[in-house]
Write a structure and sequence with these properties.
This protein has 594 residues and is of the alpha+beta class. Helix content is 15%, strand content 35%. Strands 10, 11, 14, 15, 17, 18, 19, 20 and 24 form a nine-stranded antiparallel beta sheet that branches. It has an eight-stranded mixed β-barrel with strand order 1-2-4-5-6-7-8-9. A seven-stranded antiparallel beta sheet has the order 12-13-25-16-21-22-23. Helix 3 (68-77) packs parallel to helix 4 (100-115). The longest helix is centred in the C-terminal third of the chain and has 18 residues, at 453-470.
Length: 594
C-alpha cells in the first residue's frame, strides 16, 4: 500500500487527482508544525482535502530539539485529528542533541498522553545507525523509516531500511523524488506492507464508524459513582457529573484532564489544591473495609507538575481519617506512599506524559497495589471507612512556589477508570461491623451517644446495625434517616422501623422485643458468638449486630465471627451476661433487604 508525506513545499495539491493516481495513494502524513512557533500554512487544507478524498491523513511535527514540552504543546494546539485511525508522527532529522532518543521519548509520551494513542516516530537511515533509539522503541512507538534512491518510483530492496532496535518498520519512506498526479514537482513516496485497516491501528482508537466529538468526561468514563472536588470556590463539589465539564476538568483526545493550580482552593484539613474524584455509592459517600472485595483500576499519565515543588498524588485509598496508600510522584520518582512514608519505587525516572496503569485491590484485610499489571506492594491492614480517590492532588501551594498563578499547576490525564465490587463474599468472610461505642460522643438524631444503656436501647445499636447491613458509615446513614423522617418520639432520638425500611428501600417484616427465650430455645446450642464488652455503669454488656450475606431471602448471619445462621433476614441481639446459659432475653427487627 502506497502513501505520501507533504508540506507547504508542495504548494496547492489537487487531492482528487492524487486519489486517482495509478499508485493508489491511501495515506498521507501532513506537516503541521515545527519548533515552537512555525505552523505549516497548507496543513489545514491538505488535511481536509485528504479526508474528502478518502485518503487517511495524519499530522507530523518537525523537531528542532528545544523545550520538548513547548514543542509538543505547539503541535497539540494546531492539529486536527477527527476520524478513527488518523495518524500522528514526530519527524526527527537534526544532529544538535547529544541524546536525541531521550528528547524524542519525552515528546512522544507527552503527546500520547493527550491524544490517546502513540504517534509514529520518523527518522532517516544515517540517524538510525548513529544513535541508540531503544528508549523510543521500548515505548512501542511505530517506526516510520526513511531510506531511498532519489528517483525510485517503487520500493527497491537494495535500499530496504535499517530498523535499529525496532523489530520491523510500520512505514518505509522509499523515495524523495517521487511523482504523484495532482502534486507539482517531486514528492516523498511511502510504502507499508499493511492493509489500511491494520495501519489505522497505529492511529486514533475506536470503532471504524466516525463519531461526534467527545465534549464531556462522562462520555469517556462511567462517573455515576463519583463526586468531583474542584480547586475553585470554597472549594466546589459536583455530585452529578453527567455532561459536566470545567476548565480544570475537561476532555483532551481520549483522556480526561484533571488540573489543580497551586493557587487553587483547598478542602478543610488540607493545604494543597485538588481536582479529584471521590468514590460514592447510591448517592452517598462510599465507605467499606479492607475485608470487602473492592478494586479501582486507573490508566493514566501525569502530564504536568508545579514549577518548584514537583509533587503530585495520582490515585489513593483513603479511610475515615486519612490517606492509607497512594500513588505519588516526587518528580522524577514515582512511588507508593504508605500514609506519609515512602514505599516501593515504581519508576525512578518517570517522564511526564508516560502512560501507566495502577490497580488498588482490597480484600481479606489487605490492600494490593499493581503497577502496569504487576503486583508492586501488599499492605496488610484492618481498617474501615475506606474509599477510592482518583485525579490530581497537587502537593504544592503558593507558599511553596515562587510563581503563584493558574499557569503553575499539577495535571493528570486519565484514560480509563474502573470500579469493581465483587459480589457478596463466602460466609467465612465478613465485612466491617459498626458498633455504637466506636462513635461515642457523636451526635445521631438529636442526641450524642454516651454508651449508656438507655442510649443503646434508644437508637445507637439499631443505627449501627442498619449501617452494617448497608456498609455505610453510621454518620452517613444518620443523615439519610434524619432527612427521611425516620426519627420520632418526644426526644427525637428513636428510630421508626417502618420509616427506616421505607427510606432505605427495604420491606419491614416486624419486630419483637424482650422475648423471654433462651438462645437454645431458638436453636442456638453452641456459644460461637464472639463477645464484645462494653464498660457501662451497670456493668458489662454484650451487644451484637448482624450483616445480611444472602439478601435474596431468608438467612442472615447472627454474628460476624460465629457464623450462626437463622431463617430471618436481620437480627439485633442484646444479651446481659457472658454465660450463655443465663441469656434471658433478646430483641430483633426483621427486614427483607431488596
Amino acid at each position: 500500500m502506497y502513501g505520501t508525506d507533504v508540506s507547504h513545499h508542495q504548494g496547492v495539491i489537487d487531492w482528487n487527482r492524487v486519489k486517482n493516481d495509478p499508485k493508489k495513494i491511501e495515506f498521507a502524513l501532513i506537516k503541521a508544525t515545527e519548533s515552537t512557533s512555525f505552523i505549516d500554512n497548507k496543513y489545514n487544507r491538505n488535511t481536509s482535502e485528504a479526508r474528502k478524498n478518502e485518503i487517511l491523513p495524519g499530522p507530523y511535527h518537525f523537531a528542532r530539539g528545544g523545550d520538548y514540552k513547548k514543542e509538543a504543546e505547539h503541535f497539540l494546539k494546531n492539529i486536527d485529528i477527527k476520524e478513527i485511525g488518523e495518524l500522528a508522527a514526530l519527524d526527527y532529522e537534526i544532529y544538535t542533541l547529544s541524546d536525541p532518543a531521550a528528547w524524542c521519548r519525552k515528546w512522544l509520551d507527552y503527546v500520547e498522553a493527550r491524544i490517546g494513542f502513540k504517534p509514529l516516530f520518523y527518522t532517516y537511515h544515517k540517524l538510525l545507525l548513529k544513535y541508540n533509539w531503544k528508549p523510543v522503541s521500548d515505548g512501542n512507538f511505530g517506526l516510520w523509516a526513511s531510506r531511498f534512491g532519489k528517483q525510485e518510483q517503487t520500493p527497491n530492496a537494495q535500499y530496504k531500511p535499517t530498523t535499529g532496535s525496532w523489530p520491523f518498520y510500520a512505514i518505509w519512506q522509499f523515495a524523495s523524488e517521487g511523482k504523484i498526479d495532482g502534486i507539482k514537482g517531486f514528492v516523498d513516496l511511502n510504502y507499508t506492507s499493511m492493509e489500511l485497516p491494520t495501519l489505522k491501528k497505529y492511529g486514533k482508537p475506536g470503532s471504524t464508524t466516525p463519531t461526534t466529538p467527545i465534549k464531556h468526561p462522562s462520555e469517556i468514563m462511567n462517573l455515576k459513582n463519583w463526586k468531583l472536588t474542584l480547586p475553585t470556590g470554597k472549594p466546589t463539589e459536583i455530585t452529578n457529573l453527567d455532561g459536566y465539564s470545567d476548565q480544570f476538568f475537561s476532555v483532551m483526545g481520549e483522556g480526561v484532564v484533571f488540573r489543580a493550580p497551586v493557587n487553587g482552593a483547598t478542602t478543610s484539613g488540607s493545604k494543597y489544591p485538588r481536582c479529584e474524584l471521590r468514590e460514592m455509592r447510591d448517592g452517598n459517600k462510599a465507605s467499606w473495609s479492607t475485608q470487602n472485595r473492592r478494586s479501582m483500576t486507573i490508566e493514566q499519565a501525569i502530564t504536568h507538575v508545579p514549577d518548584k515543588k514537583k509533587h503530585i498524588v495520582a490515585g489513593q485509598v483513603h479511610d475515615a481519617n486519612d490517606d492509607v496508600i497512594v500513588i505519588r510522584l516526587e518528580s522524577p520518582k514515582l512511588f507508593i506512599d504508605i500514609n506519609g512514608k515512602d514505599g516501593p519505587v515504581l519508576d525512578s525516572k518517570y517522564e511526564l506524559g508516560r502512560r501507566f496503569s495502577v490497580k488498588f485491590e482490597s480484600g481479606e484485610g489487605k490492600i494490593k497495589v499493581y503497577y502496569n499489571s504487576a503486583l508492586a506492594h501488599t499492605l496488610e491492614k484492618q481498617i474501615s471507612g475506606c474509599y477510592f480517590k482518583a485525579g490530581c492532588y497537587t502537593q504544592s501551594n503558593c507558599e511553596k512556589e515562587d510563581k503563584c498563578s493558574a499557569d503553575n499547576y499539577g495535571e493528570v490525564v486519565i484514560y480509563k477508570l474502573v470500579l469493581d465490587e465483587t459480589p457478596a463474599a463466602p460466609d467465612n468472610h465478613f465485612p466491617i461491623i459498626y458498633n455504637q461505642l466506636d462513635f461515642k460522643g457523636v451526635k445521631f438524631g438529636s442526641k450524642k451517644t454516651t454508651g449508656k444503656q438507655n442510649n443503646i436501647d434508644g437508637y445507637g445499636c439499631k443505627l449501627c446495625a442498619v449501617s452494617t447491613i448497608k456498609q455505610i458509615d453510621p454518620r452517613e446513614i444518620d443523615k439519610i434517616l434524619v432527612n427521611g423522617g425516620a426519627y420520632f418520639g418526644t426526644n427525637g432520638n428513636l428510630l421508626d422501623d417502618t420509616s427506616i425500611a421505607r427510606i432505605l428501600g427495604w420491606e419491614y417484616l416486624g419486630v419483637e422485643r424482650n422475648v423471654n427465650k433462651t438462645p437454645e430455645s431458638i436453636g442456638i446450642t453452641t456459644p460461637t458468638i464472639k463477645e464484645v464488652d462494653y464498660s457501662v455503669a451497670a456493668g458489662k454488656q454484650q451487644h451484637f449486630v448482624t450483616r445480611i450475606l444472602k439478601p435474596d431471602g431468608r438467612k442472615a448471619i447472627l454474628d460476624p465471627y460465629g457464623g450462626v445462621e437463622r431463617p430471618v433476614n436481620y437480627y439485633e441481639l442484646k444479651v446481659g451476661d457472658k454465660d450463655w446459659s443465663k441469656h434471658k432475653y433478646f430483641s430483633y427487627r426483621m427486614f427483607k433487604v431488596k
